[in-house]
Specification:
α1 links the parallel β3 and β4. The protein has ten helices and twelve strands. The radius of gyration is 18 Å and the shape is globular. The chain has one domain (about 5-285): NADP-dependent oxidoreductase domain (TIM Barrel, Alpha-Beta Barrel). The strands form three sheets. An eight-stranded parallel sheet has the order 3-4-5-8-9-10-11-12. Strands 1-2 form a two-stranded antiparallel ribbon. The chain is about 40% helix and about 20% strand. The chain binds NADP nicotinamide-adenine-dinucleotide phosphate. NADP nicotinamide-adenine-dinucleotide phosphate binds near residues 19, 21, 49, 132 and 213.
Length: about 290
């Protein structure tokens, strides 16, 4: 059984599937995407993380949400058990011919994209909708007020924020109150600067969702940061990725992880991390 936790009002798996690699540049195709999502769900995963902006630059928008919808529609299991989270506030672009990410946190854009997300996911109201990333051109408060309006209009049931600082979490809590249920920030052995927000979420009763929990799908700049995890993995005869995820989950019962995968094998391995118990000595060693 994949480790379970409470994310706002939802009982769900603490390990979710990060959908991004399935529909970004270098993805392995639509069928492989469906197969990977089905494999995750078949193994008990009940949380999928996607975004309005998970598509190839220049390609059709919202491909990730379309993929999730088709995968759920063709899955024979209990659809109602699956928590689908998506995000608004980002879009894809090009800079000097290279694919890039741009932000648009204007209230009207967030509200429009939220409605488009609900439509592509085929739901009346989105389970959990994140504001993807602060837009420096728009006061944070205005973007969060738009998220409150989205909630008010019934387009989303719960709100999350992503890439948020301590100050921004405080501001969002002030506007959204208990409808703010989750903070999704980068966190992994190669990215620990968000530790303050992870700790704050524990006190504030918010879920903390680690994005790129394995350091991202590109090769890390400093691979040696994973060496202690490789040593512990050897002792347990598991992949070091399982040790990384188990170490993150051990940071608190409010912590969730959404590892990405291009193929069934990797997500199936990641989902086993919930069965791995690290000793206090091992956790102390890993930091
Ligand atoms: N909120 C945000 O701003 C934001 C930003 C970035 C990402 N995200 C979310 O976070 C999710 C995860 O991030 P990510 O995809 O960038 O990186 P990640 O989860 O840190 O790493 C994904 C990579 O790790 C590999 N992998 C996963 N499990 C493995 C295992 N058990 N053994 C060996 N290799 C394994 C995958 O390999 P294969 O490719 O071989 O399958 C993939 O290349 C995304 O999908 C997205 O949903 C959110």
């Amino acid at each position: 059984m994949v480790a379970q936790g409470n994310l706002g009002p939802y009982g769900t798996t603490r390990i979710g599937l990060g959908e991004m690699p399935l529909t970004l540049e270098n993805n392995l195709g639509w069928e492989q995407g469906i197969e990977t999502i089905h494999a995750a769900l078949g193994a008990g995963c009940r949380q999928i993380d996607t975004a309005w902006s998970y598509y190839c630059s220049g390609g059709p928008e919202q491909t990730g949400e379309k993929l999730v919808r088709e995968a759920l529609a063709t899955w024979k299991g209990p659809r109602e058990e699956v928590l689908v989270a998506t995000k608004v506030g980002h879009f894809r672009n090009f800079t000097d011919g290279k694919p890039t990410w741009d932000v648009d946190g204007r209230p009207e854009a967030l509200i429009q994209h939220a409605k488009e997300s609900a439509r592509e996911l085929g739901v009346e109201a989105i389970d959990l909708l994140y504001f993807h990333r602060p837009d420096p051109k728009v006061p944070y408060q205005e973007s969060i007020e738009a998220m409150a309006e989205i909630l008010h209009q019934g387009v989303a049931k719960q709100i999350g924020i992503s890439n948020a600082s301590m100050e921004q979490i405080g501001l969002a809590r002030g506007i959204l109150g208990s409808s703010l249920v989750a903070v999704q920030n980068q966190y992994s052995p190669i990215y620990l600067s968000t530790q303050d927000t992870l700790d704050y979420c524990a006190q504030a009763g918010l879920a903390f969702v680690c994005w790129s929990p394995l350091g991202g799908y590109r090769k890390a700049k400093d691979e040696t940061k994973f060496d202690p995890f490789r040593r512990v993995a050897q002792a347990h005869a598991v992949s070091y990725q399982q040790v990384v995820l188990a170490w993150e989950l051990a940071k608190g019962s409010h912590v969730f992880v959404i590892p990405g995968a291009h193929r069934p094998q990797t997500i199936l391995d990641s989902l086993k991390a919930g069965d791995l118990t690290l000793s206090p000595e091992e956790l102390a060693q890993l930091g």
